[in-house]
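Deliverable D5.2: sample structural annotation.
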Amino acid sequence: MDPEILKRALDRERKARKEAERIIEQKSLEIYQANQELRELNQSLEQRIQERTREIEASRKDLMLAKEEAEAATKAKSLFLSSMSHEIRTPLNGIIGITELMMKMNADQRLEEMLANMKYSADNLLVIINDILDFSKIEAGKITFESIDFSLDELLEGLRETFRFRKEEKNLGFIVEKSPEVPQWIVGDRVKLNQMLINLVGNAFKFTAQGEIRVEVSLLEQGTDDIYLQFSVKDTGVGIAPSHHARIFQSFTQSDKDTVRKYGGTGLGLSITRQLIELQGGHVFLESDLNQGAHFYFQLSFGRGRAPVAPDANKSIVASSQLRGRRVLLAEDNKINQFVATKFLKNWGLDVDIANTGQEAVDMVADGAYDLVLMDLQMPVMGGVEATGIIRQREQERQSSQEHLPIIALTASAFEDIQQEAIQAGMDDFTTKPIQQKALYARIEKWILKK
């Protein structure tokens, strides 16, 4: 082979190898730089992840702290409302109770009108208190509904009586009608239904200066075990502009600023009514225009009720011969409440002893033979829950050598957890203040005759 040709070939190979080495070196440098950038980016990403994790953890701790603070605030609010409920209901119990006693004893028509006015005002105050408490229960998710047999006819008659004085005072027509096909006895929450109707009817009276308020109950649908009813409240009052329809169902809100100035009110009744209806699976509607009156109506499902086999103790309170002479211990520290409850009990033929503290109640039960105890929950020295626990403990120690003593809690708290605490402590039943004569009588009769 020609040496010159071989030399040129070797030169070309050498140049090619150097070029290849240069390219490899350049690519290696590029790969190294890319790896460095990736390493730095990874370190930065890890740092950002760590920082974000710390931020999330701090946020989680803040959220947990905020949750704990909110729960503590809710608990504090519930305790406050429970305490306020007791403090407000206790004097209100005296006002309503004494008014009822005076209305039964009085024969003077002029005084009767003033007493009826006092009773109407006290009942309205009780409705406002119940609205505020229900608002708190709904916020806390603790609202519950009863499912009991009750007379719809009796509830509507009570509605007529509640607004009798208001009707006469404003010289308005007040018609309450129930369609013939609607049964008398239904199953549901009587107290809540009454509260909703009182709110709607009270609202109608507030905004109606002339004309009438009409309450109608009609049957929408019926099944074998349940019925679907519509409750309607119509008035000929000032009416509500369509643009304000949604607004009036908001909490603490009325249709406009002039409404508060002219008519007053908390702005809570319609909001509570709507929520109570919807929480029971119902719906509330409004048809109204300015200066055209208002028509509120709601629809709810109820069970078919049955009339009690025994005579209805709610219709009239007549002292049972089986109750006459039975001994009742009233554990209550408030003097006015003692006076009112004692009057009721003695009118029913019961013998009454009074304990001013829970400790006195414990001692008197140990020394005397009682057929029943009415136990206030909040008393000095010892509360009703603690006193009941001691009484039940002593019964167990006697190994049932003595009959079970019925204990009915008297509570001014409308909160279910307070009522459940009473039952868990060993109480057999409870009744709330202000004391409703018919409800108290029914419970006393139930437990004394059960012995």
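Annotation notes: The first helix runs from residue 3 to 105. Residues 259-266, 311-316 have pLDDT under 50 and may be disordered.
The annotation will be released with the project's public dataset once the embargo ends.
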